[in-house]
């Protein structure tokens, strides 16, 4: 039987064929989790491996709240919420709330569902990033609709995560002009400095995003 560690290495390498062969030989491999408790399905989502995600989906007919939020599966979230409403405030083994995961990966519909059901838009992750769903959305590129949903529900555009970094710093670093514009309209500060003393414009310039740097100048 393929060792679970080897399966995660396959995923890191993006080797979908090897993963498919391992699952065909031993379907129970799909039950493996990494050291922080993330499922193989969620790891595929984290790694932006849609082929692997789709390969794994049949092995997860009843995803947990964290996998469901990452998938944007609001129907499954409905089922889980009906069973246990406290899951909205739960934290994954790697420190994320369902709203963090939906904001980063699940899409606007999942974000709106969670907010409508009472998820905390200000929840801080239980890991070294110590960030809010807004940071997760911007850092991973969750999309403008998810970003607007968070801001419209009271997310603080000037809240900081590890290193004194705001969502605007993250958007600038990514060269995400649309996110930058949305954050600025919401009141995010162009003059906020990270713990390193850097402005959002500096993050953009250092990474070669001249248009965003100019917008933030």
From TrEMBL:
Signal peptide interval: none
Coiled coil: none
Annotated ANK repeat ranges: 94-126, 163-195
Keywords, in A-Z order: ANK repeat, Repeat
Classification via InterPro entries: Ankyrin_rpt, Ankyrin_rpt-contain_sf
SMART domains reported for this sequence: ANK
SUPFAM superfamilies given in the database record: Ankyrin repeat (SSF48403)
Keyword Repeat applies: yes
PANTHER family assigned: ANKYRIN REPEAT AND PROTEIN KINASE DOMAIN-CONTAINING PROTEIN, ANKYRIN REPEAT-CONTAINING PROTEIN-RELATED
Descriptive protein name: Ankyrin repeat protein
Organism: Acidobacterium capsulatum (strain ATCC 51196 / DSM 11244 / BCRC 80197 / JCM 7670 / NBRC 15755 / NCIMB 13165 / 161)
């Amino acid at each position: 039987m393929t060792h679970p560690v080897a399966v995660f290495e396959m995923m890191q390498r993006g080797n979908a064929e090897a993963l498919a062969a391992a699952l065909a030989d031993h379907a129970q491999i799909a039950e493996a989790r990494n050291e922080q408790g993330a499922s193989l399905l969620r790891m595929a989502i984290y790694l932006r491996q849609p082929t692997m995600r789709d390969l794994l989906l049949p092995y997860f007919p009843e995803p947990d709240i964290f996998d469901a939020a990452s998938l944007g599966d609001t129907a499954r979230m409905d089922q889980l919420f009906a069973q246990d409403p406290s899951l909205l405030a739960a934290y994954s083994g790697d420190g994320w709330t369902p709203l963090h995961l939906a904001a980063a990966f699940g899409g606007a519909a999942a974000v709106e569902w969670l907010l409508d059901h009472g998820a905390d838009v200000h929840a801080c992750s239980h890991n070294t990033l110590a960030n809010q769903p807004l940071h997760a959305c911007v850092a991973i590129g969750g999309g403008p609709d998810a970003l607007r949903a968070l801001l419209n529900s009271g997310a603080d555009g000037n809240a900081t995560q590890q290193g004194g970094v705001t969502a605007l710093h993250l958007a600038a670093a990514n060269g995400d002009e649309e996110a930058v514009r949305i954050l600025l309209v919401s009141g995010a500060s162009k003059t906020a400095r990270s713990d390193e003393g850097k402005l959002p414009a500096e993050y953009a310039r250092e990474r070669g995003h001249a248009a965003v740097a100019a917008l933030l100048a």
